[in-house]
């Protein structure tokens, strides 16, 4: 089986290569360069600033190392690759054969300082790069066989170090070659500090591009999507070899502060100053009962300093409850857990009567929550896909934990004289991937009363449902408005039931910002939800994109000047900044004319007439294939292992395989390799 390895040299090919053959190979490599130039003339290597050619070497794979020789004889050693310092990735190529790459994740040397017999200097050959090698097999079947063998050798690196100790008692060969290999392996493993550096490095400098939203979308459509979202290195005919093997993921940081009012009616009451009462009266003169307020410009003093797209993410600080729902074996247990998660999204509320910003058309928002228990991440992506009527689409996904949520909300506001209601018309669809169960969820409305007389108070009202067609379980909840003569105990009341078909299974009672009880039909009662201080302290930490790394149409950056003015209590400045954004939106609408707006991250399903995430992935998480889920430019992706056939080599055999290897010269089997070297012109 034929393997090939590509290399590139920098700094005129004389400084940074640290492979064992580099120093002695300079003159010979330059001679080869001159001969190749004379024989081949101008070629593609000239365009890319280097000349590439292939040279055949021989390779012997052993636990933890890859030995490279100039000839089939073991006395012409070239160099040793330390596999315990390497990562393996498939590398598609448009040339003949099958390519893959071994590289150091921190761009350090992958070469051993000595040979298998203690050699200090390797045989002369053309220089090889220090921190990676790209191999090419003659055929795909040969290449995948090599990848299987290399992956098994990679997994055996640490096992070999452990079992080598027993080798002194006869389990492993104690030849000089075995001893040298063991010493090299034990001295080159990644330290904890290096692993931490790697994790941080993979998330660096990947901020949201300054390109327009549509440019970023086109880049994605023309790039990663060509491989179906699968992460591999690009073809060596199309992409430079300096392409980083690390994840090109958005860099998130933990949210610095968060506003959260106390439970009860006191936090939902607004005392309006005399100055602001005048603004309200001016506004009310423009209104009539039953009027839709979506086109009415509201005063900034009632605004919560964040976008509605941001506010919709409040339901996922306890997304770990959905992770538990996906693992729950009982269908009844799953519907209870989904209801518990649903209730967890309401106790977070601003102090007073506040309304978030109406998102600008094309505005986006993204964030995520880390799950320490499952080592996973829940991603949230939202986009304002329509301005008139105002429609917000959102997508939430944690593929590793087995769920995603897709939905859209049409926000309507109705004025009734002394009160108004903000109606959230739409549905969210929660999918439990491993069980193929879909839960259709609706939302309550927000009701504000006391506009003309009385105290301005905000409440939630209306009936909602959580329904799973597959299991026939349905939860019905009613958010009740405070009656005219009601006391404090009648504030924020919620009640409901869970049933399967026509059979009543349990009833629900309590307060949506406090304790909620579930009583089984057997009479047994349990706490369904209670946001105690202990529960609040376990909230998942929300991760956000830093302001300077956000795109121009991301919520925080888009509204930053309005937010700053509101925080500084400068209502005039806030009104002016808000007007600038709204006027720009109106001008853009005029420029588009009759041309419809095309959202960047969502599309309208012609069959269901619902907005869905463009890059949705409904495949369940496969631990044998999937490595990690990440997000870039609003696109949630999954990094996967290379698709390979294992040909009967199971990882469970790694320990036994390592312990049975006799690392001695007489057991060495070599196979030819062709190595692609690159020299400066």
TrEMBL record:
PROSITE patterns: OSBP (PS01013), PH_DOMAIN (PS50003). Coiled coil: none annotated. It is a single-pass membrane protein. One of its GO terms (molecular function) is cholesterol binding. Its main location: endoplasmic reticulum. Residues 208-217 have a biased composition (Basic and acidic residues). Residues 34-155 form the PH domain. One of its GO terms (cellular component) is endoplasmic reticulum membrane. Keywords: Endoplasmic reticulum, Lipid transport, Lipid-binding, Membrane, Phosphoprotein, Transmembrane, Transmembrane helix, Transport. It is found in: Endoplasmic reticulum membrane. Residues 204-268 are annotated as: Disordered. GO terms for biological process: lipid transport. PANTHER family: OXYSTEROL-BINDING PROTEIN-RELATED, OXYSTEROL-BINDING PROTEIN-RELATED PROTEIN 5. Belongs to the OSBP family. This is Oxysterol-binding protein. It comes from Oncorhynchus mykiss. The gene is osbpl5.
């Amino acid at each position: 089986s034929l393997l090939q390895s590509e290399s590139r040299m920098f700094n005129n090919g004389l400084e940074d290569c640290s492979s064992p053959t580099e120093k002695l190979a300079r003159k010979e490599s330059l001679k080869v360069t001159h001969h190749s130039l004379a024989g081949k003339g101008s070629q593609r290597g000239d365009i890319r600033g280097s000349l590439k050619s292939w040279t055949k070497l021989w390779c012997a794979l052993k636990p933890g190392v890859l030995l490279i020789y100039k000839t089939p004889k073991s006395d012409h050693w070239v160099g040793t690759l330390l596999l315990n310092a390497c990562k393996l990735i498939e590398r598609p190529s448009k040339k003949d054969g099958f390519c893959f790459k071994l590289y150091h994740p921190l761009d350090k040397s992958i070469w051993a300082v000595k040979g298998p017999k203690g050699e200090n200097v390797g045989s002369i050959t053309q220089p090889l790069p220090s921190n990676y090698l790209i191999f090419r097999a003659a055929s795909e079947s040969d290449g995948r066989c090599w990848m299987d063998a290399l992956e098994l050798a990679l997994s055996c690196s640490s096992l070999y170090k452990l079992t080598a100790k027993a080798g002194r008692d006869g389990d492993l060969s104690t030849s000089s070659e075995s001893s040298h290999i063991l010493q090299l392996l034990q001295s080159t493993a990644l330290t904890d500090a290096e692993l931490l550096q790697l994790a941080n490095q993979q998330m660096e400098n990947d901020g949201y591009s300054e390109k327009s939203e549509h440019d970023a979308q086109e880049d994605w459509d023309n790039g990663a999507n060509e491989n179906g979202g699968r992460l591999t290195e690009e073809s060596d005919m199309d992409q430079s070899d300096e392409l980083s093997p690390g994840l090109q993921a958005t860099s998130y940081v933990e949210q610095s502060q968060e506003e959260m009012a106390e439970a009860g009616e006191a936090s939902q009451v607004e005392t309006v100053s005399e100055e602001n009462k005048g603004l309200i009266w001016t506004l009310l003169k423009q209104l009539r009962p039953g009027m839709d307020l979506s086109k009415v410009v509201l005063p900034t003093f009632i605004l919560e300093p964040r976008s509605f797209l941001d506010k919709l993410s409040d339901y996922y600080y306890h997304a770990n409850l959905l992770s538990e729902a996906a693992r729950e074996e009982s269908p009844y247990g799953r519907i209870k857990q989904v209801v518990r998660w649903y209730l967890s999204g309401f106790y977070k509320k601003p102090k007073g009567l506040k309304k978030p910003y109406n998102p600008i058309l094309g505005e986006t928002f993204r964030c995520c929550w880390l799950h320490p228990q499952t080592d996973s991440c829940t991603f949230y992506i939202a986009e304002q896909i329509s301005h008139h009527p105002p429609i917000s689409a959102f997508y939430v996904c944690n593929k590793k934990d087995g769920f995603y949520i897709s939905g859209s909300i049409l926000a309507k506001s109705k004025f009734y004289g002394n009160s108004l209601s903000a109606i959230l018309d739409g549905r969210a669809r929660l999918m439990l991937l491993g069980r193929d169960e879909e839960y259709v969820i609706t939302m309550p409305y927000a009701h504000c009363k006391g506009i003309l007389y009385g105290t301005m108070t905000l409440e939630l009202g209306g009936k909602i449902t959580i329904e799973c067609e597959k299991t026939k379980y349905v939860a019905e909840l009613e958010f009740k408005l405070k009656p005219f003569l009601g006391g404090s105990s009648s504030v924020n009341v919620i009640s409901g039931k869970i049933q399967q078909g026509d059979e009543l299974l349990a009833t629900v009672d309590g307060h949506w910002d406090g304790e909620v009880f579930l009583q089984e039909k057997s009479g047994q009662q349990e706490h369904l939800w209670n946001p105690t201080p202990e529960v609040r302290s376990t909230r998942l930490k929300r991760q956000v994109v830093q302001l300077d790394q956000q795109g121009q149409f991301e919520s925080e950056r888009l509204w930053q000047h309005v937010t700053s003015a509101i925080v500084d209590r400068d209502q005039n400045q806030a009104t002016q900044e808000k007007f600038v954004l709204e006027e720009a939106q109106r001008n853009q609408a005029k420029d588009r004319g009759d041309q419809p707006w095309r959202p960047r991250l969502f599309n309208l399903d012609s069959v269901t007439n619902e907005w869905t995430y463009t890059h949705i992935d409904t495949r369940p998480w496969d631990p044998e294939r999937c490595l990690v889920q990440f997000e870039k430019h609003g696109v949630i992706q999954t990094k996967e292992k290379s698709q390979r056939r294992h040909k009967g080599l199971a990882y469970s055999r790694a320990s036994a395989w390592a312990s049975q290897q006799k690392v001695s010269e007489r057991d060495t089997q070599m196979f030819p390799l062709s190595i692609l070297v690159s020299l400066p012109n």
